[in-house]
Amino acid sequence: MRGLVDKSRKYHPISGTVLDHLFNFNGLIDFMTELASQGKTYRMLGFLRHEVYTADPINIEHIMVTNFANYGKDLFMKSSLDTVFKVILGVELDTMCGTFEEGEMFSNAFDEASAAVMYRFFNFLWRVKRFLNIGSESVLRNSLRVIDEFVYKLIRIKIEQAQRLQDGTNGDILSRFIELKKTDPKYLRDIVLSFVIAGKDTSAVVLSWFLYMVCKNPHVQEKIAQEISEITKVESS
């Protein structure tokens, strides 16, 4: 938040300043957890801007589920998923361009499953829905089926490739596990999905924040462009 305070609007309560973050740096997570327990959404005052923190389930649902597309991470989500899959499986998922139909189906199923799991925090009847296989729980079950079919298929292909090559030329993480004789499909599926969960949203959020800060600091943008140009030997336009 930036600029003068509009007295006609209601603002969240102030819980401190960025200096409080500095003073509590060694126990920052505990400090922020304590603030969140006192008020689910609060402001921290800074020198040039104010920051809003929220642990309110309604706000989180709005950002991550209900109005997800409004928060400028959609292409970053696709890009980070493509990158994670390339590193883990050596597979071009290409959800950015949508040229891989099965990859697109996996991506959509993964997002639907994530949203359905998130919805459990707000719907105390989710166990009933799961038993009856209705609503969001039905979506979750179908999405998990698509996810499993896709990942298990890729695992089978990787195992077959490893048996044919026998020289360890594949550089992806899954191939490394297979080389170590870790060939149980369920174990490998859990490894793959753990990496996807750990790398997808986190990378996308970091990239979003990075570009936001770069846009606010054009002089830094110029330095980054120059460094990239020098490393790649490509003139920046």
Automatic annotation (TrEMBL):
The keyword Protein biosynthesis does not apply. SUPFAM superfamilies: Cytochrome P450. The chain crosses the membrane at residues 191-212. InterPro entries: Cyt_P450 (IPR001128), Cyt_P450_E_grp-I (IPR002401), Cyt_P450_sf (IPR036396). Its cofactor is heme. PANTHER family: CYTOCHROME P450. This is Cytochrome P450. It comes from Stylosanthes scabra.
